[in-house]
Amino acid sequence: MFYGIIITMYTDRREHNPPHFHARYAEYKCKVDINKCEIVDGGFPKKQSKLVTAWAEIHREELIADWDLAINGEEVFHIKPL
User: Fold this and answer.
1) pTM of the full predicted structure?
2) Residue 76 covered by a domain
3) Distance CA 2, CA 9 (A)
4) Structural domain count of the chain
5) What angle in degrees, to the nearest 10, is found between the helix axes of 46-58 and 60-71?
């Protein structure tokens, strides 16, 4: 969680490609493609969109590693906030 944005990656084998995570901010929800570091579903206010995509770019390698753990039903590692 950072700046009121909550990041979630589900550890469920039913999650689907492309690698992604979910984010929530107040009443907004979105899904972020890890490879492209862009929102692919839902939406955020402009400022929070920039924050979440910048965070994804900074932590892309960690997010991909966590995705691999998640789709194998394993616990993911905590990634530092902004």
Assistant:
1) 0.90
2) no
3) 15
4) 1
5) 80
